[in-house]
Amino acid sequence: MNTYIYELEMKVRDYECDLQGIVNNANYQHYLEHTRHEFLTSVGLSFAALHEQGVDPVVARISMAFKTPLRSGDEFVSKLYMKKEGIKYVFYQDIYRKRDGRIAVKSTVETVCVVDGRLSDSPLFDNVFAPYLR
Q1: Active site residues
Q2: What is each CA distance from 97 to 33, 36, 69, 121, in whole angstroms?
Q3: 104 and 35 Cβ atoms separated by less than 8 Å
Q4: What angle do CA 33, 77, 21 make, to 5 degrees?
């Protein structure tokens, strides 16, 4: 059983859907990224402030498995938990349709930090994420 550390509710907008009336696959990446950014904000981190300090978290790899399509107007919950593997912070992110709890997407997002222009471990992230890491 996954123990999520953060949840964010959202709603599908009309323009995010394709001709089949379902959310276009690329929009799920937006949902996942928005969730990670809001999680960072919730723990007191700002992307702009991090960049000014020379710390740039970047996505290295994403894997997504599409399970149940979301449609215009669907409300959903984007959930995440995370682990650290070497210098990578791995976010396990799942999106659930609210009306029936069905999983829409299962994803794994591997991120790394570029510190002062070099791929590096981030003591700042290690400290801030310590309570959340498995």
Answers
A1: 18
A2: 18, 18, 9, 35
A3: no
A4: 85
DSSP 69: -
User: pLDDT of the chain along its 134 residues, tens only?
Assistant: 579 999 999 999 999 999 999 999 999 999 999 999 999 999 999 989 999 999 999 999 999 999 999 999 999 999 999 999 999 999 999 999 999 999 999 999 999 999 999 999 988 899 999 999 87
Write the single-letter amino acid at 99: R
pTM of the model as a whole: 0.93
Question: What residue has token string 């809001």?
Answer: 38
Tell the residue number behind the tokens 């996505």, with chain if given: 59
Give 63's strand partners: 108
